[in-house]
Amino acid sequence: MTTNKLIYQFRVELLEIEPSIWRRIQVPAEYSFWDLHVAIQDSMGWLDYHLHEYRVKRPHGRKVVEIGIPDTETDREVLSGWEVPISAFFVQPGVAAAYDYDFGDGWHHKVLLEGILLREPSIKYPVCVAGERACPPEDCGGVPGYERLLETLSKPRTEEYRDMVAWLKGHAKNYFPYKPDHFDPAEVKFWNPAKRWKVAFGKNAHREF
């Protein structure tokens, strides 16, 4: 069966945080790793401000491959995500990849292929079908910073609380009021991956879509 009739269902979990922050998304099987990256960003609530990278084993092998944005400053081999189809590595349900976002804050995710489904003609893909809890605000300082943020917001009428509220309001996304327990899949809006790529790398950059 050709991939244009298939849908990949992934469970994306943000690691090192409890209770768990996770999403279940369905994407076209012909997606590239870049396309999947955009869907992960949009479903989690990240703003795609920072670098990202996948680490995944080759099918039926032990070698771990790094996929994302090529590293031009070192000799480390990173495959271009927009040139690698997800179907080349996610060959069957149960395959998982590590997905890192923002190497400074260090957000680590597990991306698990839960199933391969038939495309439903009435559904516009990608789609987020489930999930729990709000994504941490961008640039909050990784897991330790996120924990401090939650602690600070639990103590109103303090100077630290007022400073945190001012930071949340002044953020590009305006995160205030930040509700860590809130997530509604129906509120997820997905970008076109090709348009996101042009925004990231310039309209004159070459890529075949």
Structure commentary:
The longest helix has 12 residues, at 33-44. The protein folds into two domains: 3-133 and 183-201, MM3350-like (Structural Genomics Hypothetical 15.5 Kd Protein In mrcA-pckA Intergenic Region, Chain A); 137-180, no CATH class. 22% of the residues lie in helices and 26% in strands. By secondary structure, it is α+β, with helices and mostly antiparallel strands. Helix 1 packs across helix 4 (193-201). Strand 6 and strand 7 form a beta hairpin.
Secondary-structure map:
Elements: E1 6-14, E2 21-28, H1 33-44, E3 52-57, E4 64-68, E5 79-80, E6 96-101, E7 107-118, E8 127-132, H2 142-153, H3 159-170, H4 193-201
Parallel strand pairs: 4-5
Antiparallel strand pairs: 1-2, 1-7, 2-8, 3-4, 3-6, 6-7
Helix pairs in contact: 1-4
Fill in the keyword field for this structure.
209 residues, Structural Genomics Hypothetical 15.5 Kd Protein In mrcA-pckA Intergenic Region, Chain A, 8-stranded mixed β-sheet, 8 strands, alpha+beta
Proportion of β residues?
Answer: 25-35%
Order of helices and strands: EEHEEEEEEHHH
Q: What would CATH call the homologous superfamily of the largest domain?
A: MM3350-like
The N- and C-terminal alpha carbons lie at a distance of 22 Å
Cα gyration radius (Å): 18 Å
Unreliable residue runs: none
User: What is the mean predicted local confidence, pLDDT?
Assistant: 93
